[in-house]
């Protein structure tokens, strides 16, 4: 580890912190229906969309109606994207003549992008037409991100309102997320990316002749527009197969910084939205602090592991950190930082091959996802995910002092705790359950590239990434098979909707409760004690659930490496 490396990490952290208040304030005005700088431009469009949808901003929904609207909207998106991918060969904007996708791969890809996962069992530049990239994948990049934000805002309203029956309107929240937040930032950001050298065109691929006289196909297309929303919306799906390591996706150090900041921006700002809407910004900062502690711990461990390198190479005089699988432009520091950022925020974009990380360095992204992507997390999804852990932490605090737990004046009772635990436990059910099956089935084992604990880590990482709706790949696993396409697709759907439904049930229960005034026995939830309790509960739940699996993978691989064995 170097002083220069830590300066780069601290600069990134400083930029994110500086964005929290202004972006949080803007988002609060958007979702409370207040006037913003963009209101004169988008207000007529917003009203027109409500008329087309047959709804109104004054028409609010019960939590069951809100959740049903979300589910039907996403089901329609899943079916539409599946059909587009199956028949892309017969559709326009296909200059490279890409054929339609096989059924299993089309299902996996449709589930992936609808759930904001963007797991890719295909090479984008060799599989997807421009129409599929723009009208299929990129549209879902926007609406899946907006869906997560809408659910988070609905849950925030549940804590902010008292004795109410409704949580807002899904169609209104979805529309405002796209019109006032995602679209303007992405248009401006895409222009900056084009300035930095990211392609944005509809031309055919370029055929070049190399110095050796061999013809080379240079893929291009509408890249910049997809890159900005892929990071801002924590989607992660790359236009190119090597994702953000490709010089067309990530040509400069500035674009690399823009990508990382965009990944964290909305998720971090939602903590401030929460504080503002409940009337106490310290509450939001407390949650942000818990996220920050977990993030910095992960960055430190991952950076240390990669900077230390492989002791087996040190023994023969090769030092300098672990550069295997890393883009030489970014090196160890920015590769480790990017890996932690993208898995902490449920994005999944990568600028290095995680399969080539040291055992403990590769374990950090895995842990980030196993905790439920609550360290900043996906846009919206990370915030409603950590609120589930807040409910559990408050319940634990109540048990310790022997009184009914409450949070922000709302009593946390049996229903809320049961729903929170249901949401938390559905993740290991898919992550560990599918992994256990895959490593004993011949069809699952056949796709593993490495033997021993590293091969186990490849499978574990795949199902963890899919269930956590991250989408990053460890590498080394041939995922484009019927078994992995179907099971990974199911894991994505479970990880998305089996968390959202209990979260909405909690919101529906809390929104109708009265706010109890603070008393001498009220546990303060905006100070260091609460932050420590929340971090502790997250680590204990995660450790008890996943430590045995980690012990079979990266931990035993690290110990074997120290003993002189590699895989």
Give the strand content.
under 5%
Q: Could you give the count of β-strands?
A: 4
Unreliably modeled segments: none
**What distance lies between the first and last C-alpha atoms, to the nearest angstrom?**
25 Å
SSE topology string:
HHHHHHHEEHHHHHHHEEHHHHH
Q: Tell me the helix content.
A: 55-70%
Order of strands side by side in the largest beta sheet? 1-2
CA-based shape = globular
Major sheet description? 2 strands, antiparallel
What's the Cα radius of gyration? Answer: 23 Å
The helix count comes to: 19
Mean pLDDT: 93
Structural class: mainly alpha
Give a written overview of the molecule.
With 567 residues, this protein is mainly α. It has a domain at 20-203 and 218-279. 64% of the residues lie in helices and 2% in strands. It has 19 helices and four strands. The strands form two sheets. A two-stranded antiparallel sheet has the order 1-2. Strand 3 (406-407) and strand 4 form a beta hairpin. The longest helix is centred in the last third of the chain and has 35 residues, at 528-562. The two termini are 25 Å apart.
